[in-house]
Amino acid sequence: MVSEGEAFCPGHVTAFFEVHDDPSPRTKGSRGAGLCLSLGVRTVARVRDAPRQSVDILVNERRQKAEVTQRVAEKLTGSRSFEVKILSETPLPVSQGFGVSAAAALSTALALDDALGLGLPRDELVSVAHETEVECGTGLGDVVPASLGGMDLRLKPGAPGRSEVRTYPVKADLLLAVLGPEMPTKTVLRDPAKVAAINRVGGPLIDEFSRDPSLERLFDIGNRFAEETGLANPTVLEVIRASRMFGRATMAMLGNSVFASGRSDQLATLYLRFGTLQRCEVDNEGARLL
Amino acid sequence: MVSEGEAFCPGHVTAFFEVHDDPSPRTKGSRGAGLCLSLGVRTVARVRDAPRQSVDILVNERRQKAEVTQRVAEKLTGSRSFEVKILSETPLPVSQGFGVSAAAALSTALALDDALGLGLPRDELVSVAHETEVECGTGLGDVVPASLGGMDLRLKPGAPGRSEVRTYPVKADLLLAVLGPEMPTKTVLRDPAKVAAINRVGGPLIDEFSRDPSLERLFDIGNRFAEETGLANPTVLEVIRASRMFGRATMAMLGNSVFASGRSDQLATLYLRFGTLQRCEVDNEGARLL
Question: Alpha carbon of A254 to those of A13, A22, A163, A271, B279: distances in Å?
Answer without folding.
Answer: 9, 21, 21, 18, 24
